[in-house]
Amino acid sequence: MATSLGIKGSTGVPVLATAPQVASLRASLGLDAVDNTADANKPANAAFTNALAVAVAAKIGGGPPPSGASFRVTAGKIYDGAGTHIQIRGISHFGFNADILQPQYLWQMDWKAQLAQIASLGFNAIRCPFVPQTLYSAATVDSLSWLVNGPGNNLWHGLTPLQALDSWMAECDRLGLYVLLDYHSVSNVRQYPFWFVFNPADFALTYNGLAYPKESWIRDLVFVADRYKANPHFMGIDVYNEPNGTVRWDAGDPAMTQSQYYWKPAVELAAAAILAANPNLLIFVQGITPNFDGIENSTMPINWGENFQPEASKPLLIAADKLVLCPHTYGPDVSMKTSFAAPNFPANLAADWETLFGRFYPAHPVIIGEWGGKFGAGTAGAMDAVWQNALVDYLLSKGISDSYYWCYTPNSGDTGGILDNALAVIPGKMALLHRLWGV
User: Fold this and answer.
1) Catalytic option among 296, 306, 311, 370
2) Rounded-to-integer distance, Cα 56 and Cα 291, Å
3) What pLDDT was estimated at residue 63?
4) How far is C-alpha 345 from the geometric centre of its chain's CA atoms?
5) pLDDT of 396 strictly over 60
6) Which of 242, 296, 306, 311 is catalytic?
7) CA dihedral sign, ordered 180, 160, 423, 384
8) How many CB atoms lie within 10 A of CB 113?
9) In DSSP terms, which residues pair with 90 in a beta bridge?
10) Active site residue 268
11) Handedness of CA 146, 149, 153, 155 (dihedral sign)
12) What's the pTM?
């Protein structure tokens, strides 16, 4: 049976512990008295999960103390270790989470040139999605996608995705770009609704074709937290992207009593393990889809990752100076909500945003982790540009100027990017972001 405890191998890649190693660890921690089933195809009970999280942090994060900046939040804003406020002028740059396991568009662009352009446009932060395959694949990036000649791309021939991510992170640090690593899915095949896989029908999605229990998710979060802890621009981890479907915040929906689908205890456990390995980091947590707890308004239109209503009645037990609420919200180019057809659109939008996430600012930073659209060039036409401007108006009315725009390259189907298909910067999108940033 494959185990879920990660220990660093000689290459620095997280590897699965052997059965004797796990048996010894379980015995030393008294875990056999807690859970003697050892079945990777079903969720472990809470006591075992908590003990294993501590063990994973100790095993993987047991090196020297972190040497990077210690980020914290106060009154809804982010500060570095020197107490300097950091405005998040962020952009998502995907690809390490995709089948190519590297940044998009390297078949036409050099990755160092991409980062230099991002910085030159005024962005100071990048949200970088990754998946387990990013960490475990032995394929070389030049075998996964064509790399055009360039000073950065030429360095990546023969490198694994993890080694490529190492150099990408180092270049972000050199350019002064703050990095948010986004655990995007359990698979690079598709977005998966849960942070675990125990349905055998879905094992083909995982990096090793086996179950991927919650403990493996925590292992991989802790691995990246530890691996880049000396990087002073490694700001935080977005612990899972857009949990949805049967996911609930916590107990409360009488139709969903299976605790493995409860988001709140899962992210609290993940946060504890991450911060044990690297206390410098911030913990970015996304919202969920409707919670159906009889308290919130579950009938309002809600994007994946957008709903923080349950935070009002069951707040996250994560250190307040480390927690960032990171909702996702999209306009009509991505999802045509009923609210977009209301006669008072777009004036009606602010009330929904306030209900779903805005009211938690400034008790916590509310930093939208994904928003965007084709800004008039997509299926919704001018309505999407109206929506994006309305969102910026709302954020500014709240005193919020932090966000991560989706995305950099043009090949995100329903949103496009900051670059058009000719790889030219789209002036309207940048003007919108400049208005948000106040520049």
Assistant:
1) 370
2) 31
3) 44
4) 30
5) yes
6) 242
7) negative
8) 15
9) 125, 404
10) no
11) positive
12) 0.88
Cβ(424)–Cβ(110) below 8 Å: no
Structure tokens that stand for 74 in this block = 């106060």
Distance between CA atoms of residues 238 and 271, nearest Å: 10
SS (H, E, C) the chain: CCCCCEEECCCCCEEECCHHHHHHHHHHHCHHHCCCCCCCCCCCCHHHHHHHHHHHHHHHCCCCCCCCCCCEEECCEEECCCCCEECCEEEECCCCCCCCCCCCCCCCCCHHHHHHHHHHCCCCEEEEEECHHHHHCCCCHHHHCCCCCCCCHHHHCCCCHHHHHHHHHHHHHHHCCEEEEEECCCCCCCCCCCCCECCHHHHHHCCCCCCECHHHHHHHHHHHHHHCCCCCCEEEEECCCCCCCCCECCCCCCCCCCHHHEHHHHHHHHHHHHHHHCCCCEEEECCECCCCCCCCCCCCCCCCCCECHHHHCCCCCCCCCCEEECCECCCCCCCCCHHHHCCCCCCCHHHHHHHHCHHHCCCCCECECECCCCCCCCCCCHHHHHHHHHHHHHHHHHCCCCEEEECCCCCCCCCCCCECCCCCECHHHHHHHHHHHCC
pLDDT band at 16 (very low <50, low <70, confident <90, very high): very low
CA distance 388 to 372: 7
Q: How far is CA 417 from the centre of its chain?
A: 18
Contact criterion met (CB below 8 Å) for 372 and 330: yes
Q: Binning pLDDT at 50, 70 and 90, where does residue 21 land?
A: very low
Q: Is 242 a catalytic residue?
A: yes
**CATH architecture for segment(s) 71-437:** Alpha-Beta Barrel (3.20)
Whole-angstrom Cα distance, residue 423 to residue 192?
Answer: 30
